[in-house]
Amino acid sequence: MIASVASVRFRAAGAGLLPRVGLCAALTSALFAAHAAPAAVDLDQVVVTATRTAKTQDATLAAVTVIDRAEIERLQPASLPDLLRGTPGASLANNGGPGKSTSLFLRGTESDHVLVLIDGIKVGSATSGGASLQDIPVEQIERVEIVRGPFSSLYGSEAIGGVIQIFTRRPRGPFAPNFSVALGSNQTHRASAGVAGKGERGWYSINAAHEDTDGINACRGKPSPGGAGCFTNSPDRDGYRNSSLTAQGGYNFNEQWDAEARAFRAEGNNLYDGSQNNQADTVQQVLGAKLRYRPSERVALSASAGRSEDLSDNYKDGKYSSTFDTRRQLGSVQADIGFGRNLLTAGFDWQRDEVESNTRYARDRRILRGAFGQWQADFGAQSLQLSARRDDDSQFGGKTTGSVLWGWDFTQALRLTASYGSGFKAPTFNELYYPGYGNPDLSPETSRSFELGLRGTFGEQRKQVWSINAYQTRIDDMIAYDASRGLPGNVDRARIRGVEAVLDTRLAQWDLRASATWLDPRNDSRGASNDNFLPRRARQSARVDLDRRFELGGASALSFGASVYAAGERYDDLANARRLGGYALTDLRLGYAFDAAWSLQLTANNVFDRRYETAAFYNQPGRNYLLTLRYRPAR
Question: For the chain, which terminus, N or C, has the lower number of CB atoms within 10 Å?
Fold first, then answer.
């Protein structure tokens, strides 16, 4: 199940975010119908990212982590990267606190080897190759699905390390407003408000959010010559501001036809330390629609079209310097045909990337086409998922990828899984055409991955879960800077091995969630860096969340929780000359629910004021607090 989206950038001079509500609201105005009881299906138990079809989480053969809205509100993360921190296989590098550039390395692969979707649409920059996770507000997120492993056979380029899909806020029942306001350290202010509901045929959701913080001093860099980090020394606070809006809705015309439309826009203003630029105005935008047709219980057809945008205007001391805007148009058709205990899926994706910049590129657009097929089957206690895809890029040609996943439930509470998958990553516009740097002769990076996993359930109704997964990934033709030519080239190889362990259980009325990752990410290329560790990946990491709720009578309750995250040492460079030490962070949270709808929560992060870096010379927040008042009717 994939929903493509489209977007339109509004260029009215001086216009803010709220005047644009009219266009989004028009998509949902027809859906304010009489409300009925919520559907019987519990969406929390369904994942769609691992197969592009709806499948219960316990039946999914891939390694999947799901973070729902209840967990987001319990943890109160400062940002989406903070929410993802400590999830199995993930390692992050941040350039100086809130709103600053953040890279996520999944299972030791490169930061641009992770495909990021918002409500089904691929987002990110076609020039730099990464998605701006720091600019996607957590208040707009209903749910996050993280699928680990190669999935180019379903999604095409970039999905070497995995896929992260972000679902924006949506209704769970009849008309329900929501509201929150928060105050915190570093002059942090947050507010959000929205309304959502669903009726017998239609549903709608509109949410707005705003965040403003003075931030911290992002960088302790050294000016040139002999510079490092941000190549400047500017000991001031580097603030961040973000305003966002989502509007979406859907309608069931009858048992066969339904349609939905979605819009998401986030506008950011980011101050940072830099020798060439130190301010950026950014926009992340997604808009699109999807139509489904189900002629029978065994056949489903869908078509979607849309557009996403990643826009950035950059400044130095308030003076304009550059623009890097990338726009992505998308279209997709998909057919799902069931027979017996089998499901056959076939589809076609179309994508057009376009760059607009005051920096001249030799080529500024390209078209990608991809045809894919998948077969899912159950044979008694065994399950099988086979997929293959052929992609054609107007600039680098064709590429074929495939995967096979197998599972065996040899007891009711124990499943063995094994998988193999290939992946690829197309070069970015910067790598191909950036003046004085790009190399138009680059080939795609390719990968091969093997994985073996064991998953078990226990406790009452087997709702407590544990799993362990071991994997190896080899990446060929890695794109890296070739000093002999002064250009990026396909010069590197990598060999990555890892083990992930996860536990979700309940001990003496305490909810315990724990995960640990052991990683061996090696540079397997020829030359001086051979057998060195790949930079900015922590080789060991672990997270433990412990929470308990105390009922006080009536609808009031008190909750207490703590999270501990630990990461081992890493290196900041390919030569492994600059070492970044390991660290451990402790977060505490206290909540009081006045009734079923109103709650007050206090979170204290990095309570021991640990000083650490995830990228050399870039500071991270010390001890900080956030107090949040929230209104959200119980569903």
Answer: C
